[in-house]
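ping. complex inputs:
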Amino acid sequence: MIKGYFGSYGGAFIPEILHETFQQLTAHYEAARNDPAFWAEYIALMENYSGRPTPLTFAANLSTKLNKKIYIKREDLNQTGAHKANNVMGQGLLVKKMGKTRVIAETGAGQHGVATATMAARMGYDCTIYMGAVDVERQRPNVFWMQQLGAEVVPVKSGSQTLKDAVNEAMRDWVGSMDNTHYVLGTACGAHPFPEMVSWFQSVIGQEAREQILKLEGRLPDRIYACVGGGSNAMGVFQGFLSDNGVELIGVEAGGRGVDTPQHAARIASNDASEGVAQGYKTFFLQDRDGQMLHTHSVAAGLDYVGISPILADLHVKGRVRFIAAKDDDVVSALKYLMKNEGLIAALESSHAVAGALMEMADIKDGSVVIINLSGRGDKDIFTIADALGDPGWKQFIAEKAKQYAGESS
Amino acid sequence: MEKLIRNTDKKILLMSHLVLGYPSLQANQEVIGEMVAGGVDLMELQIPFSEPIADGPMIARANQSALDNGFKVREGLAFIADTIKTHKIPFLIMTYYNILLAYGVEDFIKEAARIGVKGLIIPDLPPQEAAQAIGWCKEYGNGELDWIQLMTPTSSDARLQEIAGSASGFVYCVARKGVTGNKTDFGNELAEFIKRCRAATSLPLAVGFGVKSREDVAQLTDLAEIAVVGTAAIKIHEEQGAKAVGNFFAGLR
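pong. complex structure:
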C-alpha cells in the first residue's frame, strides 16, 4: 500500500511549494504517533480541559419506546460543544512540537473555527479563520465568539463563498506562510497526513465508547450511527469497532431536500458523486461531467460539503460502512424527538445520526444494542435551529431586538 | 519545446497566461491576438476549475466567473485547437488534475497532443503521482508535448533533482512562496534559488509569480530563459481592455 492511500482514495495532491511542509508535518505526526508519551499528554489534556471521557448515556425513554437498548455517545459535552475539540487540541500539541506560532483554519458553520480559536487562545498562537462570506452572514454568533477569543475572521468571497472555498483560501494563506504557520484542517479529509491524523485524534471517541459499552452491556453493540460531512466524528467512533465484524457501522449523510433532487450533500448514499481529486485528495465528490464541484445543500452547514473522507470512501467500497441519507425534514423531527424524550439538544449535524437511527429501528430485532454518536450540541446554534424549527416566539424576539439595536445606532 | 526556446535571438522570452472563458471565449480570442502582436512567445491557457488552490484571488475569481458564464471543457479544447491553428507560437494548457480525471486522463492527453498543445502544467499533480501522465505525453506527443514540472524555493536540493528527473521542455520556477499575483522581490534570494534550479536541471527555466513590469523582466534576463506574466495582464485587461494588453507586452522588453 502506498503511504497516505486507503484503497484507491487519499493521496497528497498538493502544489509543489507545500511538499516540504507536508513532509515536515508527516514526520512530526509519525513521531507523535510512535510516542506513547504524546498520546498520554493528549488524553490528560482532554480529561482536564474538555471533560473527557464523555459519557455513554443510556437513552431510557427512547429505548422503552422502541424496544431497543439505545446509547448516546456524548461528544456534545466537549469544550465548545462538539467533537471538533478532540482534533484541534491534538493538532495544537503538534504545533508546539513543530515550533510554529500561528494557526489557520477553515470553518463552515463556525464550530471548527471556534474550537481552533479556543485552542489558539489556550496555547498562545496567533489565529486566522477563513469562513465563506455566505457563512459569515449565516453564523454571526460563531463569528462573534471567534473574534472575542482573539482570532481574525476572514470572510471568503471566492467561489460559492462556503466551506470548500474557505478550505481553498486557507491553503492559499498556507502556501505563503508555512514557515511559522500550521493549517489546522477540521476534518478527516485533505492531503495526507490529514485524513489519518485527524482520525487518530478522533479515535478517542471509539476507544471510550468500546470500553463503556462493554462495561454497561457486557457485549459489543449491534449498530453504530454517526453523521458524515467530512467524516471525522464517524471515523472517530467507528475506529473503535472496525475489526468487530458483528458491529454494523452506518454513516448518515445529508439528504437535504432529497437525494432525488440536486439539493443534498450525500456523496455515497446518492448516485450523484464520482471519483475525483480536489482540495488535495482523491475521493468521491459531488461534481459535474467536467469535474467542476457542484453546489451542495443541507440544513446542517457542517455537512454541506462536496467531498468525503478518503478513509470512509474506502470503507464504503470494502462494504465495512453502510451509508444512508437523512432529509432536512426528518432531521428537524429527530432533533425535536430527542429533545422531548431525552432532554438532549443535538446539533443539526448530529441530528442526522439520530434521524438515521430512528428510520431504521423497525428493521432490527427487539433488544438490539445501538450507539448513536452525538457529535455536537445544538443549544449554541440557537439562531440556526430556531430558523429550522420556524419558531414564531423567537422570530418576534429577534424582530424586537433588531428594532432596539436600530434605535441605538440612529 | 526545448529546441524552440533555445532557438531565439531574444534575450528573454515572454510567456503570458489567461483564463479561458474569462470574461468570454470571444474576449480571449481578441486578447490572444493582442498578446501575440505584442511579442508574446509562449502562452498558457488555463482551463477553469472550481477549486483552484494554487491560484491567487484574482485568477481564482476569473476561474469562477468563467464557470458561472457556462464554460465547458470540451468547448475550451475546441477553442484551443482553433487558437493553435491561428497563431504560430507554442500554446500550453494549465489546469488542475480533476479536469483531466473527469475527461479521462489518457483521452485528455491524447486530445491535447492531437490539437498541437506543446505543454501541460498541472500544479496539483506532484511528480510522484504523475508518472503515468508523463508516459502518455511521450506516447501521444511524439516529443512535441511536454509535461512541465514546477520547482519552488521550498523544494530541497534532493527534491529538485527528483523533479528534474521527469522534466522536459522547460522547468517552471515559482519565484516565491504564496499564490499567483502577489508581489515578488526579485532579489538575491531569487538568484540563489535559480542557481539551485540550474544545478538540478539543464533545461531552460521559466520564472513566474508576480512579474509585472519592464524592470522585473530586465532583472530576469540574466537569470532565466522565460519570464511568465499572468495576473498583471489579467488586471490590465480588466481595467483597460484587450488593446492595452498588447501594448503592455510590447513594452516589457
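Residues 73-86 of chain B form the longest helix (14 residues).
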